[in-house]
Amino acid sequence: MKHFFDFLISHAKIYGFIFPSSEIYGGLSAIYDYGPYGVELKNNIKEFWWKSMTQLHENIVGIDSSILMHSDVWKASGHVDKFNELLIDNKDSKKRYRPEILIQEYIEKKFLNDPEKKKEILSRLYKSLKKKDLADIKVLIDELNICDPVYKTKNWTKIRCFNMMFKMKNEKDLYLRPETAQGIFSNFQNIIKSNRMKIPFGIAQIGKSFRNEIFARKFIFRMREFEQMEMQFFILPEEEIKWYEYWKKIRLKWHLELNLGDEKYYKLCDHNHLAHYASAGSDIEFYFPFGFQEIEGIHSRRDFDLKNHEFLSKKKLRIFESERNYFPYVIETSLGLDRIFLAIFSSSLKKEKLKNGKTRTVLKLPYYLSPIKAAIFPLVKKDGLPEIAKKIFNDIKIHHRLVYDQKESIGKLYRRQDAIGTPFCFTVDYDTIKTDTVTMRNRDSMKQKRIHIKEISKIIEQETGLKKVLKNLSHFI
Ligand code: GAP
Hints:
By secondary structure, this protein is an alpha+beta fold.
């Protein structure tokens, strides 16, 4: 698996999906940049999520709030006091770790075939985490004889707490937001008034969040700057269970609609260790190249945020409705954009053995997410074929994300499009001059057939548009 993960990281770089940030200066830990195809794939994922939320649900609206917010926001939200993680240093390696992750990763390997032992240790860990019994977590590390994964020594410090928010230098108490949700809570009344929203309703947002992750590894899985796609759904308090169950079902359906393989999802594991704002929480876990890990959280935040914001801001954040005056409860769905990107990318990347004994690398992305929907090539760079191919490209480029390419031989052009996940390639050849037809090659089957030039745009639209998948989802809403 490590081999595959290294291959994935290298493929992402070579083909312009993801680059290490500031690479010319030696890079920056846990920060990455999205390249030309990466940004297209990311935008397509965003569009799928956004439309699934706002277009398919008539009572969900969107927002794009600022990253920097008044410092009281983070006091009211509890992030100043409670958004803490534990850390432990190894005095020899000078490396810093999160003790609970150190323990989890250790027992995952050590007790691979002993689920009972694993359960027993995890249960003790969660109990200690709940009680904030840092000393017992340290005892557990010692009892298990856990070494520094790099230096292999056990020269550990005590376990300490640290706040995960990035504080801006020179700006007293200004933080980079650690979740997008607070922009939604602080605009709650603005949205009700401007959009005449009535309970139940939701507010969706996609945006950057920042956390000072000390154990940031695994490529884009855990970063210090990342993107979240969150939705806060405001409900009557007595309908908490109903909507919690509803959103768990809808979010899982959204994931399964991606067709990454149902067996890759651990469906909705209840949180063992709830965030400070949550009264209930469920994770959707995904089988990444390094094992099952959280990809999305669905939480009930009840009235935690609105109540605290009303208290600190002294502005009414309740609902006044038919002689009732109450704080709505909130069900939140929170998906990491970079994590779903990694899930899709890692499930789609394949090495295939061909009939002729050669291998090809192909990125079998869902068509509607592919960065490029179709490529147009001339078979050769002469005899008027490039001109015809270019005309086809220019005629339909306003409708689809296409590429025109004539830089290499046709075989190499196909391989390149396979590697970036382009579903269809259309090649102009000598028959095109006589019959106005081109060959259409499919990425997955590699089969070719002839179609009329006039059909190209319609086929791309039908096969690579979002409509089909949105329609499937809409049956569940
Ligand atoms: N508003 C709730 C919230 O932020 P969370 O469980 O802390 O909840 C939600 O985060 C999702 O955000 C996670 O399930 C994960 O997909 C993503 N996420 C969290 N921290 C991340 C990080 N350091 N790097 C990448 N994605 C992250």
